Amino acid sequence: MSTITRRHFLTTTIAAGTGLLGVPALGTAQGKEIVMLGIWPFTGAFADVGPLLDRGMRLAIDEWNNKVIGRPIKYITRDDETKASSATRRMEEAIDSEGVKIVIGPWSSGMALACTEVAKRRKVFYYFSGGTEDIAGKRCHRYAFNWAASPYTAMHVVVDNYMRLNPTHKRWYLFVSDFAFGWSVEKYTREAGSHHGIEFVGADRMPLGTREYSGFVSKAAAAKPDVLCLLNAGQDVLVSIREAHNFGLAPKVTLLNSWGVGTEDFLQLDPKTRENFWVGTNAYYGMNTPVAKKMTEMYQAKYNVPPGYAPCAAYGMTRLTLRAIEKANSAEPADIVKALEGWETQDWPGKVWVNPKTHQTVRDYMLLRCKKPDQMKHATDFADIVAVSGQPTMPDSMNECKDIGSL
Amino acid sequence: MNVAFFAGAILNGLVTGMLYALMGVGLSLILGLLNIPNFAHGVLYALGAYVMISAGKAFGFLGGALTALAVVGLLGAVIEYFGVRRLYRVHSDYILLLSFGLSLILTESIILVWGPVGITSQPPAFLTGGIDLGVTVYPKYRLAVMFITTALVLGCYLFVTRTRYGAILRAGIEDKDMAAALGINIRRVFTLTFAVGTGLAGLGGALMSPVRGLLPTMGIDILPFAFVVVVLGGLGSLPGAILAGLLVGVVQSLMTAIWAPGADASVFALMTLGIIARPQGLLGRR
Questions:
Q1: B10 inside 8 A of chain A by CB
Q2: Which of A211, A236, A265 to probe by mutation at the B interface, max B CB count within 10 Å?
């Protein structure tokens, strides 16, 4: 008769326990699952945008039926809290605990500049869409890519086309978000403006999340501008628009949000406050490309509203990443990087080309003009696309990414 | 910078300051009686704005604002009666946790009912546009908000200092047990005070919605300033809350005009200086 000794029990238990714990570890080690991290703001100043970004990324993964190159995709998210410290800490934690090798996000340039350093150090693939020039500029490295148009191109598309249509509007007042995004778009707004004789009659820099804009609007009104150019972000844009209307500055004076989210902002504004409101954006649901049209259909069917810049960007970055994985037939960061570098293809924005020297996605940018309430054909017929262009591209001499480095 | 510019900045400060005072008075009443900071005060401000936007469709702007006052006030009474009251006998940390929890639940409820995306609210038609004050042109609606909040805050002050119920309230703040021993139904006083305090927050949210718009997290933006007002003015002091509200609003607005990035920091610097100079608050008692 055999009896179970204490030693036998312990040995068996430890062996079984090790086996149970080891199975998932082996699964991960063998790379069965491809873990993709969406690092989005679910709390903080951009809390309203996080769920929309999440929707966009999920939509792309659903389109691939949660599988790429025959391997299941595990999509996980982390809340960056709209704080650089939280974003980097949670990105590191996801890399360590979940085996993440592909990171998409966050929403804010300030957070992205911190996350890109983590991507560089941990050698994970990193895609971001935003207004800072530094991801594909002086902070460039082989693992990081920027999906949004370069702020140089974007501000030229906005300023050149606005001035073509309104050549007498030469007095501009700037509201600038005081962080990396605002600094980049201000720099190129001024640069583009210098080609049109624009006089910048004033500029205020305000911290992200400012809710009291009355003082700024009073200052702007006193400068008697033709254009109040909003180089701010998130709810700050909406608060400044409301105040401009409260003070009677708009719609008399043009409100121009050079780097806007489009649809989500339009949905939050009363039609009257959209009058004489112009928006430069990376994505609008009226974009006439096959991928954009299909994405809009899928998004509207699922959420009953058209997508704005946030879901389009998350969808576009995820889609291009999944296609790069297929092209490389590998989900290893270095292989995805090589697959994207120098790739010219058709995707959400139409023709895109990933500049191998800077990792800037070279693509079109749009200028929209909002419709008056009586011009709208339906509830979401917000704006006319008055210009779509990817020109001019930033001259190499201006780009501060001089050596993108090695893998 | 000229006279018009500074006049505008001071007017902006007074409008914001009166809103802070309104929030501070409500918070101060609750703090004075219950000895706890109500962390759900910010989300009740947000709820007021959302109730106003829904009720306003049926009853117009004024009806919507009054509905916000009533609904949020009633909710405050319910919170006190079914929640806070049950925790008076345990450590005050539990009431703090309750108010934190309620804040999260109500924020998520707002998202569930009205959605995560912000909403714009328009002022009534007769209050749109600006009015020429001689030194500057100023939005009519903001002036109206300033007058309404001033009237409300003064009304609260007079109610607390000149009426019999106000005397009972002050007695409750001074010594709850003694007031109860004298036959005052102190529990009912607590419930009514909670309702009035939260109702004022709801009305503040309703009045400010055309100025700042609606967002589920809008309460988080204002809550720190309401606390600054209470601390700076003196815990439980209504005149202190009014004075501190105005001071905070004007300093913040002037700082915005002079050096915008320091606007919010200046408010906290003001509080720090206030605490150092007068630990009991501007009009508080030691």
A1: no
A2: A211
Question: CA-to-CA distance for A22 and A7, rounded, in angstroms?
Answer: 22
In this predicted structure, the answer to whether residue B178 has a pLDDT above a threshold of 60 is yes
Let me know the angle formed at the C-alpha of B114 by B112 and B117, rounded to the nearest 5 degrees.
Answer: 100
Determine whether the interchain pair B141/A246 forms a contact, defined as Cβ–Cβ distance below 8 Å. Answer: yes
| B139 interaction partners in chain A (CB closer than 8 Å) | 246-248
d(CA A166, CA A178): 28
Query: Look-up: residue for tokens 């946030």?
Result: A310
pLDDT digits (tens, 9 = 90+) for A369-379: 999 989 999 98
The token pair at A152 is 């140089």
Lowest mean pLDDT among A130-144, A169-183, A392-406, B253-267: B253-267
Q: Across residues A374-386, what is the average pLDDT?
A: 93
Least confident of A75-84, A234-243, A252-261: A234-243
> What chain A residue is nearest to B7 in terms of C-alpha separation?
A218
pTM: 0.79
Residue appearing with tokens 């759900």 = B40
ipTM: 0.71
3-state secondary structure of B89: coil
pLDDT over 60 at B283, yes or no: yes
Quote the strand ranges of A44-137, DSSP E. Answer: 67-68, 71-79, 102-104, 125-128
A167 Cβ contact list (under 8 Å, min separation 6): none
* Domains defined along chain B, listed by start: 3-277 (1.10.3470)
Nearest to B117 among A239, A247, A267 (CB): A267
Question: A238 in contact with B at a CB cutoff of 8 Å?
Answer: yes
Interface contact A221-B137, CB threshold 8 A: yes
Phi, psi dihedrals of residue A347, rounded to the nearest 5°:
-145, -155
By C-alpha distance, which of A115, A151, A30 is closest to A393? Answer: A151
The stretch A361-382 carries a mean pLDDT of 94
Partners of B224 on chain A (C-beta within 8 Å) are none
Alpha-carbon span B38 to A337, nearest angstrom: 51
Residue the block writes with tokens 């079984």: A16
Inter-chain CB proximity B137 and A248 less than 8 Å = yes
CB contact under 8 A, A238 and B252: no
Strand ranges of the sheet holding A350-354, from the earlier edge strand across to the other edge: A344-347, A350-354, A361-362
pLDDT of amino acid A7: 52
Does a cis peptide bond (omega within 30 degrees of 0) precede residue A311? no
pLDDT of A22 over the 60 cut: no
CB pairs under 8 A between A and B: 102
Domains of chain A: 27-149+289-363 (3.40.50.2300), 151-282+364-389 (3.40.50.2300)
B135 within 8 A of B5, measured Cβ to Cβ: no
Residue A13 backbone phi and psi in degrees, to 5: -60, -45
pLDDT at A226: 97
